[in-house]
Amino acid sequence: MDIQKALKKSIDRRQLLGNLGMMGAGAVLTACGGVVAQPPAEDKNYDAAILNFALNLEYLEAAFYLAAVGRIDELPGGDAEIVLPAGFDGKTALAFTTPAVAEYANEIATDELNHVVFLRTALADVLKVSVAPRPKLDFANAFAGAANTAFGATLDPVFNPFANELFFLHGAFIFEDVGVTAYNGAAPYVTDKPTVLQKAAGILAVEAYHAGEIRTLLYQQKDVDTPYGVKVEAVVEAISKLRATVGGGKDQGLVVDGKANIVVADENSVAFARTPREVANIVFLDTTNAALKGGFYPDGLSIPADLADGFGFLLSL
Q1: Of 176, 230, 218, which is closest to residue 57 (Cα–Cα)?
Q2: What is the DSSP letter of 83?
Q3: Residue (of 151, 153, 170, 158) closest to 7 by Cα position
């Protein structure tokens, strides 16, 4: 199959869907790409559900980076399966070719691990509510499926973010911008502004640092050829278009109007915000706007029984 043609066709199809206004239920895209949020009922506090939702996402990011640097055994939260590509166990770091990138990966791994520990502690000791255990995570089938969907073709070799440094950066790109938009999108639903919102804003800032770091590293290699017959810039653009299709249209590649695009933002240079539903669509690799599992979470998110109503509210947005 001609990958160039398949990629162009898949991008055009997804762009069309985005232009038709695919968005999460309960959210409206404004002209500048923002979200008009539906506030929760006045007598409801969804902070515990919001932080558990964030914890589920942090488990995913922490597991990815810790596996990449050979530290997967440091991840807390239980013993749910983490599906890794054949021949890679996450206990030995992937073969980084650039010492600086290996250092960056270790730093991000530590940051994400700290986020997991912090959120678990905040939920248990501060909010005194149930803490979501780590759900089953899939880094083999989900990455391969996402790449195939982005290209509109079955890739050979199968995309494996742990195969080499460049593929690792592509895998990191899939997650990082999503984390920024997720924290930003959840902000309107937080009740405890001085404590919960302030700490969430601090985590958002760290995720934005990570996203800028990964996008910069990829931009530096945007003209490098990949095994798929296209350059790095085209691969990243395909991933961005896929996220835009299922995630409310709020995404950008490494180049916009022929210029470098490291900072993802609307026309006012304000970071995009995704509703929890839009974020779920991306991590579930879902186009129905209704799935409760799939993609990186084959069994779904880890939802404490007493917080199910809160998750129901979030995933209806």
Answers
A1: 176
A2: E
A3: 151
In a 13 Å sphere around the CA of 82, the CA atoms on its Cβ side amount to 24
Q: Under 8 Å CB-to-CB from 172, ≥6 apart: which residues? A: 64, 65, 108, 161, 210, 214
Token pair 């930003």: residue: 184
> Reduced to 3 states, what is the DSSP secondary structure of residue 263?
coil
Residue 182: closest CA among 301, 267, 98: 301
Q: Which two tokens stand for residue 53?
A: 């939702």
Is the overall model pTM greater than 0.90, yes or no? no
Neighbours of 300 (CB within 10 A): 16
- The parent domain of residue 37 ranges over 3-314
Domain count, the chain: 1
- In order, the DSSP letters of 116-180 are HHHHHHIIIIIS----PPPPPEESSHHHHHHHHHHHTS--SSPP-TTSSHHHHHHHHHHHHHHHH
The H-or-E segment that residue 259 falls in is strand 259-260
Identify whether the C-beta of residue 166 lies closer than 8 Å to the C-beta of residue 226.
yes
Residue 263 token pair: 């900072």
Q: For the chain, how far is it from start to end, CA to CA, in angstroms? A: 39
Close Cβ partners of 236 (under 8 Å, ≥ 6 residues apart) = 170, 173, 218, 222, 253, 254
pLDDT in tens, the chain (317 residues): 444 555 455 444 444 333 333 323 333 223 233 444 566 665 789 999 999 999 999 999 999 999 999 999 999 999 999 999 999 999 999 999 999 999 999 999 999 999 999 999 999 999 999 999 999 999 999 999 999 999 999 999 999 999 999 999 999 999 999 999 999 999 999 999 999 999 999 999 999 999 999 999 999 999 999 999 999 999 999 999 999 999 999 999 999 999 999 999 999 999 999 999 999 999 999 989 999 999 999 999 999 999 999 999 999 98
